[in-house]
Amino acid sequence: MKINRIDHIAVNTVNIEESVKYYEEMFGFKETSRADMGNVILVYMEVCPGSYLELFDLKGNCEKGTVPEEMQGLRHIAFHVDDIKAWEKRLKEKNAEFTMELTRMEPIHKDGILIRDPNGVIVELSADYT
Fold first, then answer.
1. Sign of CA dihedral 79, 81, 83, 86
2. CA distances, 128 to each of 35, 84, 104, 125 (Å)
3. Which end of the chain is more exposed for a tag (fewer CB within 10 A), N or C?
4. Contact between residue 32 and residue 45 where contact means Cβ atoms under 8 Å apart
């Protein structure tokens, strides 16, 4: 049981198209896909092979200075794993603070778990499924 790589870093955006353009022009990241999750649109930009920036379009619900700090900027970091059920068991044994139990996220073809670290940072473990 091991962490394979950083899968993605997620950022809440105030203006999704402005953010996509910024990361394209500033760093040369390329948009690889968009996923409609219902309450948000996710835009994936490849940082390097296998690692992504995941931009959250909150559909106008995130204006600078008008929403809580946790709704702006860094949203979570995610690690890619092979055996997510083994990780779920380990995290429960260690009394991790779950903010999302093991969930199938069909629009992005992943299973995921979210926990909160001691600093309040959300950490996602995700695994691909077919």
1. negative
2. 15, 9, 10, 11
3. C
4. yes
Two tokens, residue 41 = 């649109």
Residue 65 backbone dihedrals phi, psi, to 5 degrees:
80, 0
- Sign of the torsion formed by the C-alpha atoms of 114, 73, 79 and 95: negative
> Which pLDDT tens digit goes with each residue over 69-112?
555 677 788 989 999 999 999 999 999 999 999 999 999 999 99
What is the C-alpha to C-alpha distance for residues 98 and 95, in angstroms, rounded to an integer?
9
Tallying the residues shown for the chain, one arrives at: 130
Distance (Å, whole) CA 64 – CA 33: 26
Contacts of 29 (CB under 8 A, 6+ apart): 23, 45, 46, 47, 53
- The reported pTM is 0.72
Cα 85 from chain centre: 19
